[in-house]
Every structure is written in structure tokens, then in C-alpha cells.
Task: structure prediction
Amino acid sequence: MFFENLKTIALQVVMLYIIAGIGFAADKFGVFTRDDSKRVINLLFNIILPIAVIRSFVSIEYSPKYVRGLFIAFLCAAATHLFGIAVSALTFKKRSLLERGVFHYGTVFSNAAFLALPLAESIIGAEGVFYCSVYIGVFNIFAFTYGIYEISGRKAKINFKKIFLNPGSISVIIGVPLFLLKVKLPHIIDYPMELAGGINSPLAMIIFGTFLANSNFKNIFMKKEIFFVSFLRLVFIPLVMTLLFRLCGVTGNLLTAMAVSACAPTATNTAMYAAKYDNDAGLGSEVAAQSSVLSVVTMPVVVAVSSVL
Result:
């Protein structure tokens, strides 16, 4: 059973990375570069992803099971981030606050929107998007508070408005009431949303590929600190949390969705936030790139483990 699941999930991961390979090649040939991606990412993050998230809430059939799952997913996502923060607080104490901030951000925050959401959709379908959307909402709460505080070298002031006034959080705030009120959109609205939301996964992976194309692959495998961050992000945190969730009675697709979200590689916005807050964007890119490469092996294993627990 484990190896059958491992094979199925590995195939899904490989297919997603093949799409990322299109972005990688497009950047290398100058057809669609990282600079182009930086502009398109605004379209993805501000419009396409929120549409996909909102539609995931209205397309799921209302039932007590999903209501319960909604709140359990929120608790699991919050617990995962809090555990990551606790673990990272024990690491890199001798490094500067700026360098430590990059490593801590890379440890705590997964690429939930760009990689976990597409993978959950591939493995579980609409239910996977439903649960991962909750994880993304929680991600934003921590990213705009603890995340910015850490990656700025503990200098940036936390803007609490951004916790809720950002596309990821707004889409969840809109989607949850629609789900709880059992709102069903008319076909003339639902179908365009389905089509627009449908490009989220491939577009996210193509953009992801352009970022990989600009990574210094020689550097990312030379620093032992980055390997340690990857171990925590890809193996230790997700496995511990997956086992803990299972002991708490979380099973089935909900457990798999939380495992997928928890074991995704370091968030690609690590480099962007590092640059924005006068930190080392190159180091942020190296952390995200290494964990992304290694996740081809680790994600199938962690998700397969969750599916047989």
C-alpha cells in the first residue's frame, strides 16, 4: 500500500515539475524570463489564486464533515506554523539577525500556494484545494507578522491590516461564509471562475520554473546550513506534525492535505521578502531553490506516509 501510494504521488510531483521545466526552459531561451514572472506573479497572487480559493469553497458540497474539517484544518495549519517557529527559535543563534531571519523564514514557511495547492489538487481534487486554502489563509497570518519581523532582522513594524487585507486572506474570508451559507453560484459566474482558477496550478509551476532557472545550483549544495534548513522544512517538521495529527484523530484526505501543505519546500517569496526588507535575497533564493530540488524526493515519501497512517 505504501509503495503504491509512493509511486502515485511521485508521479504527480514529477508531472508538476515537468510543467516547472517549461518555465525553466522558457527562461533559459529568453521567451518568458524571471522578470516577466515577477509581473505575472501579481496576476497570479492577486486574482487567479483568490478565484481558485473562493471557488473551492463554493464547489464543495456542504456537509458536517467538511464543516468539521474546515476548523480542524485551521487548527492543524496553526499548529504546524507554531511548531516550525518553536523549532527554528532553537537554531542559528550565533548568526546575525538578518541571516538568522532568512533561515528561520525558510524553515517555517512552505510553498503552500505555488506547490502544495497544485499537488493537493492533483492527488485529492477539489477537497484538497478546499483544505489547502485554509492552510494558505493561516500562512498569510503568520507570514505578515512573524515572517516579516524575522526576515527584516526584527526591525520591521508589523502591519496588522495586512494580516487580513491581502488577497490570500480575503479570498478565505469571502469563501468560508459562502460555504457555510451553502451559496451556489449560477453557471454564468461559476464556469468562468472554474476556467480562470484552472490556470492557477500550471501558471504557478511555470513561474516557479523561472525562479529555479535563475538559481545558482553550485552554491545551493555547498552550504551545510541550507541543508539543515531543508531537513527541517522537508522532513522533520512535516513528519512530526503528520504523526501528531494522526494521533489526534485526523485521517483521510484532510490528513493528506495537511501533510502536503506542511512538506512543501520553502516559500519562493523568501527571496522577495529578503530583498524588500534589505536582507540577503541571494541567500533566500538558495534556501528556496535547494529545498525545491530536494522536495522531488521528500514530498512523495511524506505524503505516502500520511496516506497509510
Observations:
- The first helix runs from residue 2 to 28.
- The chain has 15 helices and no strands.
- The chain has a mean pLDDT of 92.
- The two ends are 11 Å apart (CA to CA).
